[in-house]
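Tokens help. Consider this.
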Amino acid sequence: MTFEPCGDDQNPATAVTVTVTSLDRTTYALDEPITFEFRIENTGKEILKIPWTPNSADLDQAGPEAPYKYRRGDVSLILTDPEGRRAQLSEILYGSEDSPGTLRELLPGQWFTVRGRKRIEYQPPAWGQDELRDFVWVDAKASGSFAQYDGSFSPEGGASFTETCIPTTSKTANKVTVTFQPALSSAPGSDPDTLSSALKSGLH
């Protein structure tokens, strides 16, 4: 896959504000899934096209050997430890102009809700380790982030995906304090991937 991140080249005219509206708890073990809910509001000046399905299989494709284009949205819960190191977990949304109903227009001032259930997917090796060693817990700040990418698939040359970030300013509306304790062994049948919802409410 070829991936082009946004870097610092953001577009102030296309902006969203992400609010953490709920977490299922305020204390977790590091290997436990977190259920979260975000409100994502278009606070920019332009209409945004938002991917609307959590299932990539909903995108119409002519066949496994046919090229196609899509849009991907990453809705991320960012967990920042006292030293500023960041862990995160994300729900992924998909959409395509060729698949009716998988893209929605979000007018300035409109918002929608995303719900998800995930374990931490990326955690720097030193994340929270000082506090976990000294106090057996770490207080982190939970905030939300939203990013979008235009992608394409080409079957030529052994098949490849290319994704390019869509410059959008993602603003954080709030930060919620969450306490983490050392990881526990996972309980049977609690695989969060089978519980992931990422289902959105209607536009508001």
